[in-house]
Amino acid sequence: MIDKPRFIADLQGGAEVIYGPLETGAYDLVIDATGEARAYAPPLRDDLKARVVQWRVRTTEAAPLAFMPTAGVPGYAWIMPLDPEGREVHVGAGCLQGLGIPARKLVATAFRSLSVEETVCACGARIRLSGPDFTSVVHDNIWAVGESAGLVGPASGAGNVYAMQSGRDLVDHLGDEAGYLAAIKSHFRQLVPEARAVRRVLLGKLPAPADIYHIRQGWHRAGVQVAWRDVPRLMVAMKHAFAGVSPE
User: Fold this and answer.
1) Distance between CA atoms of residues 238 and 204, nearest Å
2) Which of 7, 8, 42, 35 lies closest to 163 in space, CA to CA?
3) What number of helices (H) and strands (E) belong to the chain?
4) How many CA atoms lie within 13 A of 4 on its CB side?
């Protein structure tokens, strides 16, 4: 929900970017910042990904913050105002289905309630929900950061801040593998039980009290405040949305 092209341009600071094949053995250090692709680091054990599509639009009328099921497929959609007037809006949806589902179908329920004046941009991808595996953050000369290292909130999908924090940790401990791993564990160990709890819900299993706690904490870390009394109902809705299990 940020101006990502502007943010990336600011980070690059005029540095030249070269695209092409990379021979990892030719370098002392390769930083894998390829997101869910994890193009250079080895695959994660028990990886879990969801498909996500999103639009940035301007509307003729103010839009409310809202979450709702997707149309016809297991998943959920959202509407998030980006400005005080509520007319610059982030619209998106996520699900565990493959790319065979049209993007517009996923967000049909969200767009139905909006009067769109202009589409600013749109994109789609997959997002990693399996949490970090600290044994595979560093593999020989390849160090993973951000989503490549599994640093995405499994309950919320939040990852921008986590990616930037892990990038700082890497720079602060450049050349110090043990120091980098210690920093990553210190900042992100809470994502491991959160991911375990989310996986239990998506598999249709009964969550333990600890699972409910970790999922609520995951929402809290993303800035979403959920009352304790609402957590069980929302977890049932998550199971229904992503796993296609009907709530009782």
Assistant:
1) 10
2) 35
3) 8, 8
4) 10
Q: Residue 225 domain-assigned?
A: yes
Contact 155, 196 (CB under 8 A): no
Per residue in 21-73, pLDDT (tens digit) is 889 999 999 999 999 999 999 998 889 888 889 999 999 999 988 888 776 66
> Is there a domain that residue 2 lies in?
no
- pLDDT of amino acid 245: 39
| Whether residue 170 sits in one domain with residue 108 | no
Distance in angstroms (rounded) separating the CA atoms of residues 192 and 214: 9
Domain ranges, residue 219: 192-243
In terms of Cβ atoms closer than 10 Å to its own Cβ (0-12, 13-18, 19+), residue 223 is: exposed
88 pairs with which residues across the strands? Answer: 58
In the block, residue with structure tokens 């009394």: 229
**Structure token digits, residue 208:** 């333990």
Asked if pLDDT for residue 244 goes beyond 60, the answer is no
Number of domains in the chain: 3
* Same-domain status, 104 and 63: yes
Please state which of the ranges 32-46, 155-169, 224-238 shows the lowest mean pLDDT.
224-238
- CA pair distance 29, 138, nearest whole angstrom: 10
Residue among 236, 238, 190, 241 nearest 213 (CA):
190
Whether the CA torsion 232, 237, 240, 246 is positive or negative: it is: positive
Residues 43 and 75 in one domain: no
| 124 and 169 together in one domain | no
